[in-house]
Amino acid sequence: AQSVTQLGGHVSVSEGALVLLRCNYSSSVPPYLFWYVQYPNQGLQLLLKYTSAATLVKGINGFEAEFKKSETSFHLTKPSAHMSDAAEYFCAVSNAGGTSYGKLTFGQGTILTVHP
Amino acid sequence: DSGVTQTPKHLITATGQRVTLRCSPRSGDLSVYWYQQSLDQGLQFLIQYYNGEERAKGNILERFSAQQFPDLHSELNLSSLELGDSALYFCASGTGVSGNTIYFGEGSWLTVV
Q1: Beta-bridge partner residues of A27
Q2: How far apart, in whole angstroms, are the C-alpha atoms of residue B98 and residue B95?
Q3: Among A54, A85, A101, B66, who pairs with B98 as Cys (CB 3.0-4.6 Å)?
Q4: A&B contacts, CB < 8 Å
Q5: What is the 3-state secondary structure (H, E, C) of A68-104?
Q6: CA distances (Å), B18 to each of A23, B12, B79, B110, B112, in order?
Q7: Nearest-CA distance from B37 to chain A in Å?
Q8: To the nearest whole number, what is the mean pLDDT of chain A?
């Protein structure tokens, strides 16, 4: 079984400040990990994914995440927040390999608010 | 634009009714996934099809069913609808190869009244 915990349902930062969105996972097999962003009334857009290559993963829009196996974490960061980053962010886990790849287990989401 | 097309975008229907949601995957993608997003349950995996065959099943109710057709489009059928079925239903597609990106459509908003 696999699960994802996103700490902090709401995160508020000032424009230009560091963004840190936390994600911890539980998986009995090596995981694939994803961060998706959802803007209001839109679908889910992939920000980045970890698929057992480099542990530091760079994504779109300046976001990156680091896979830390010892901490079972995959936190999302961005050095400088922009107003356009305001959205809801979802961390997800999938079993690496096998026929059930793509069966994602999502966290509850974190709403990011960016203040001018 | 993810390349995954879902119709209808919005749907309002009464309790007890049946609806069909349609999904066209990205060109070349063989896998289709259905997800439900609701305020109380969050984002939940419902079911996956790969090249016409059911591949994985999640928390899908017995009142719900899905299929994938030879042209790879998929339909999610929801019957005997209840108020609690009101949600955003996402379709996603992928190649089915581990590690490849799963792309999501913009969803179908279902409101049951």
Answers
A1: A2
A2: 8
A3: A101
A4: 67
A5: ECCCCEEEEEECCCCHHHCEEEEEEEEECCCCCCCCC
A6: 37, 11, 4, 11, 10
A7: 10
A8: 91
Per-residue pLDDT tens over the stretch A35-67: 999 998 888 999 999 987 788 999 999 999 999
Q: Assign residue A102 a region: left if phi > 0, alpha if psi is -120 to 50, beta otherwise?
A: left
Task: Provide φ and ψ at A40, rounded to 5°.
Answer: -50, 130
The nearest CA of chain B is from the CA of A101 a distance in Å of: 6
User: What is the three-class DSSP state of B28?
Assistant: coil
- B49 and chain A in contact, CB less than 8 A: no
Q: How far apart are CA B91 and CA B62, in angstroms?
A: 19
Query: CA of A102: which chain B residue's CA is closest?
Result: B102
Task: Report helix, strand or coil for B26.
Answer: coil
Below-70 pLDDT ranges, chain B: none
Total Cβ atoms within 10 A of residue A9: 11
